[in-house]
Amino acid sequence: MYRFVCGAICLAVAMQSASIAQEAPMPPLRADQVTFLALYRELVETNTTLSSGSCTLAAERMAKHLKTAGYVDADILLFSVPEHPKEGGLVAVLQGRSSTAKPMLLLGHLDVVEAKREDWTRDPFTLIEENGYFYARGAMDMKSLDAIWVDTLTRFKQRGYRPKRTIKLALTCGEETAGAFDGAQWLAQNRPALIAAEFAINEGGGGLTDGHGKLLQQTIKVGEKAGQNYRLETLNEGGHSSIPIRDNAIYELADALVKVRDYQFPAKFTPTTRAYFAKAGAARADDMGRAMMALAQDPSDSAAAAAVSKDRINNGLMRTTCVATLLDGGHASNALPQRAGANVNCRIFPGETVESTRAALETAIGDPHAKVTVVPPVDPVATPSPLDPRIIGPADKLVAKYFPGVPLIPVMATGASDAIFFGLIGIPVYGVPGGWGDPDNNGVHGLNERISVRSLFVGRDFLDDLVKAYAESD
Questions:
Q1: What is the pLDDT of residue 193?
Q2: Model pLDDT, residue 22
Q3: What is the structure's pLDDT at 11?
Q4: Which CATH class, in words, describes the domain spanning 226-375?
Q5: Is the dihedral of CA 107, 109, 110, 116 positive or negative?
Q6: Could you tell me whether strands 429-431 and 215-224 are parallel, antiparallel, or unpaired per DSSP bridges?
Q7: The CATH number of domain 9-225+382-471 is 3.40.50.720
Q8: What is the mean pLDDT of residues 338-354?
């Protein structure tokens, strides 16, 4: 449901995309669902792209809902910095009744990926319901979860519910665009006491259908990789194209990129990835499933590792991966290139560093003329969240209640999110199950983004129960 690009997409793209069939229609909405839909619509239709939108406005609108429910100014912080006045965020607090139970944190980002009206079938900033889906930019990633968090705290206050744990909410900007003001990083570095919590729940988990309305599994995200860009560059004095030379900067870059493509980082495992291979492998009745289970049993099984690595999603769960994403080079059509370069995007396995990854790339390339440099911003080392039964247990029980027969599978995200900044200050972050998506990833980060109407409303009820279960836990 929530940002499959970092969570359940790890499972979804392993399947063949199927035509999307309309799910069973929702029964008439309850009064509380009508109210929630209005909040969700308002948030989705508030443009929060970096180019022309405002996270600050979205945060202010969500704060208004909280205040209407009974929160006072002391419970809410609206924040931004002068250099980025439209990239602000929100922190809200619902005080718990226990003086010893540590708080929990609900986390979400307000910003969305850019969307051009001329490319979309529908207006990307108008929520449109069609054939059992809501369409809009951010409909799934991740204003669905943002709206659920605000709605949950609103309803808790209106009911007079006072949880055992204090519940905190942080909605930030800057997650979707490298180099933008990142509110999550700012809070972790400048207001750590305000967001201090025993754990946080975030995007990255969720369910997967077969593309025809049948739910196959739910996932809970436990840890993620760190994302980092590198500049791979070759330089040359150039010259006239009529007298070519062998050490052409473009050819040297091409040779280096082939070596990047062919290099495989060593296989590594966390408790989460071993649990994933065991449980996901058991759900398959094929050679890949058997290899996954063998690898979970013995991570040193090189034959099993080789077999599992043939699946690109499983391969990404086993090791650091690097891939070329951008190219540039040359300065004139009739001149030898003086410079050629490429961006190499790496997803770094937890515990490995930016510098060790850069060094591994240079060693793999083995050409002193090909330089690999780190492109700012520099992500911190990913800190794996523990496979904590106090987190997994309540989610597992609710999945069994809401979706009988559907397994809950822990998964490490092959992508990266703002969770990485909270791990640095001792807050483990988990991506929640509840809603679901289809094998084509529902247009997240692409065209005609959508979320199933049933997924939104069932996920909302599920998460209301999950937040209460965590809020009352020891």
A1: 97
A2: 55
A3: 41
A4: alpha beta
A5: negative
A6: antiparallel
A7: no
A8: 96
Q: Token pair for residue 283? A: 């759900």
- Chain centroid to CA 221: how far? 9
Does residue 337 contact residue 34 with C-beta atoms inside 8 Å?
no
376 residue type, one letter = P
Q: Angle 21-24-25 (CA atoms, 0-180°, nearest 5)?
A: 115
Q: What is the pLDDT of residues 420-469, one digit of tens each?
A: 999 999 999 999 999 999 999 999 999 999 999 999 999 999 999 999 99
For tokens 């793999």, the residue is 364
Q: How far is 64 from 70, CA to CA, in rounded Å?
A: 10
The values of phi and psi at residue 413, to 5°, are: -70, 135
Whether 319 has a pLDDT exceeding 50, the answer reads yes
Structure tokens given for 143 = 């204003």
- Under 8 Å between Cβ of 340 and 233: yes
**Residue 237 burial (10 A CB sphere; 0-12, 13-18, 19+):** exposed
Q: What are phi and psi of 258, to 5 degrees?
A: -60, -40
Q: Which two tokens stand for residue 263?
A: 């290099």
Tokens of 290: 């058997």
**CA 333 vs CA 228, 239, 337, 453: distances in Å:** 32, 12, 9, 53
Domain ranges of the chain: 9-225+382-471, 226-375
Helical segments of 243-320, H only: 249-262, 271-282, 287-297, 302-309, 312-318
H helix intervals, 70-206: 143-159, 183-190, 192-195
| DSSP state at residue 467 | H
Q: List pLDDT tens digits, range 281-296.
A: 998 889 999 999 999 9
Q: Given pLDDT bands bounded at 50, 70 and 90, which one contains residue 18?
A: very low
**Is the pTM value of this prediction over 0.70?**
yes
Q: For the residues 368-375, what does the mean pLDDT come to?
A: 96
Per-residue pLDDT, 179: 76
Alpha helices in 403-444 (DSSP H): 419-423
